[in-house]
Amino acid sequence: MMNLLVRLHAYCYIMQFLGLCFLIAFCVCTCEAQDRSLSDVITAFKQHQIPEHLNINFQPHVLLDVIFPQTNGTLIAFASGKQLERRETIMAPSYRIRGANRIGPFVIIAVDPDAPLPENRNISQIRHFMGSNYYKSLDLQDPNHLVNTTEAITYWRDPRPIRSSRPHRYIFLLYKQSREFRTQILVNPMSSLAYFNVSRFAAATRLGQPIGGTFMLVGPDETSPIKAYDPEKDGL
Ligand SMILES: *[C@@H]1O[C@H](CO)[C@@H](O)[C@H](O)[C@H]1NC(C)=O
Ligand SMILES: *[C@@H]1O[C@H](CO)[C@@H](O)[C@H](O)[C@H]1NC(C)=O
Ligand SMILES: *[C@@H]1O[C@H](CO)[C@@H](O)[C@H](O)[C@H]1NC(C)=O
Ligand SMILES: *[C@@H]1O[C@H](CO)[C@@H](O)[C@H](O)[C@H]1NC(C)=O
């Protein structure tokens, strides 16, 4: 019995130690890359003309972190306005929030307002992600982590600016989920990704204004398409 207790104790210590290591490792690779304050986020959004181009009144009160897993097991986070390599943004990101007093549910929507080109945004916005029923995690190790309890409505579509393009803005917005959202039929997994209008959608589903957001810039690389995505021919 004694023996078992001692072993159990040792086991607990090891698990706690691993948890701490995980937190430290997580912070080393992501903390310095994240938004530090709401005013930094607001400034970056203004500098990149996002509120006017998305028709949003952007007064966030939580910080949203978007974290991309990499094939080698590392994580990449970013502060608003940072440029990432296209290959770093291929896999669906996970999300964290800081400063929220509610646990959820939240809706997350990501859009590209610069398609096909920042100079000619005539097929914008492209909807790159729409997911709902996000809640703050019950995991004490990482309580700011958001966990979804239902499938995404639009799965993550990785950035694909054409080869001749300047970097596009990829904007992530966090909303308090409304009751009306649960029964919305405006967007489903088969809906076209192009010609989306996030402010019109948010008004129609009573999401209100975003309570958080962030954005990254992504330009083309050698694997990028030459020809622009054509919503009439290329399906979704
Ligand atoms: C993991 O991959 C990323 C790019 O996706 C790279 O920046 C980073 O240096 C790599 N890290 C290790 C430890 O290999
Ligand atoms: C968008 O602009 C491109 C390039 O100018 C043009 O080829 C295309 O027909 C336009 N598409 C629409 C839907 O207006
Ligand atoms: C949460 O969303 C991801 C995709 O964004 C999906 O793969 C996963 O199945 C979802 N989880 C649940 C419980 O539906
Ligand atoms: C999106 O919808 C809003 C509200 O209906 C409208 O004012 C705005 O012009 C639309 N934006 C685009 C790019 O069509």
TrEMBL record:
The keyword Signal applies. InterPro entries: PEBP (IPR008914), PEBP-like_sf (IPR036610), PEBP_euk (IPR035810). Pfam families: PBP. Residues 1-33 form the signal peptide. Gene3D superfamilies: PEBP-like. Keywords: Signal. The keyword Signal applies. PANTHER family: PHOSPHATIDYLETHANOLAMINE-BINDING PROTEIN, PHOSPHATIDYLETHANOLAMINE-BINDING PROTEIN 4. This is OV-16 antigen. It comes from Agrocybe pediades.
